[in-house]
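Justification of computing resources. Each target in the renewal requires a structure prediction run like the one illustrated here; the chain below, 201 residues long, is used simply to show the kind of job we budget for.
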Amino acid sequence: MRVAMLGGTFDPVHIGHLIGAQAAWEQLELDKVLLVPAASPPHKHQRNISSAGHRVAMLEAAIAGDERFGLYLEELNRPGRSYTVDTLREYRERFMADGGELFFILGTDNLLEFDSWKDWREICNLARIAVLYRQGYDTDPGELEQQLPGIDVCWVDMPLIGVSATQVRGARAAGRSVRWLVTAAVENYIDKHGLYAPAPS
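Resulting structure tokens:
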């Protein structure tokens, strides 16, 4: 079994997340990509995050009917901050005691600060690091490997998709459409629940 985890706040999940997950599934010949929503990510405490219920519901809507993708929700059940090393260790103990290959998907921006993550060397022992690489935009892989010696990574080529959750929230707050930035099902959920709507004047 070849499984990859893609963690994030997913507030909201957008097409960039899904295209990256699809690229990893294809190029790494995976059986499953698990999207892992964080409860309280260590690096994102500067703003209010939508409830876990809303974020999970949007993820479920985004991947409905696609058996390549699934959700792993244990970080939402864990008190305190979410640390990748705990999630990977727990998953291996529960589901890969008899073998299997586990990958952890990162963007190049995360890779550059990876050596500041809690127990990053153990993360490398628990999972193979798969880096989403956008040719012509991201730093050359050779240069990245020189900056982070000792980290064995595999590279996943993906198209340059200029979409971020910040952009989606900003568009909604400004009263603009988020169509094509998120799936239709996620857009419908955002509209139905009034998420990221402009603040009342």
